[in-house]
Amino acid sequence: QVQLVQSGGGLVHPGGSLSLSCVASTNIFEKTGVEWYRQAPGKQRELVAHTISSRHEIYADSVKGRFSISRDYAKNTVSLQMNSLKPEDTGVYYCRTQIGEFVYWGQGTQVAVSS
Question: Distance between CA atoms of 66 and 86, rounded to whole angstroms?
């Protein structure tokens, strides 16, 4: 059983930055891609960024140029750096990974962007 534990998030003013971390209980990230989702209040969960290899990522148009994924396999950690945050970035952020038919989610972390 793999556990994903998230940290980071919080309240920030527009234009500010936050970093989210997703730590796995095993070295699963060396074998799998990682996805970051967010769910804004009253909206469906949406994919904002994901890795497609050990060096490449894809970002939603809404976050492109502002968000970036980094990996630290030695620490079983994938992070999401969020810069130039906007109020519309507010939501609960989740990391997700899948290996075979097994899907693992982090517990979610709240990000609030407000003046």
Answer: 10
- Torsion angles phi and psi, residue 88, rounded to 5: -75, -5
The radius of gyration of the chain's CA atoms, rounded to the nearest angstrom, is 13
Asked if 112 and 39 touch (Cβ cutoff 8 Å), the reply is no
Q: What are phi and psi of 5, to 5 degrees?
A: -115, 125
Structure tokens belonging to residue 39: 């769910």
DSSP string over 89-111: G-EEEEEEEEETTEEEE---EEE
Find out whether 68 and 51 touch, Cβ atoms under 8 Å: no
Per-residue tokens: 54: 């050990």
Looking up tokens 């809404």 gives 62
d(CA 95, CA 85): 18
Please give the chain's pLDDT, 115 residues, in tens.
899 999 999 999 999 999 999 999 999 999 999 999 999 999 999 999 999 888 899 999 999 999 999 999 999 999 999 999 999 999 999 999 999 999 999 999 999 999 9
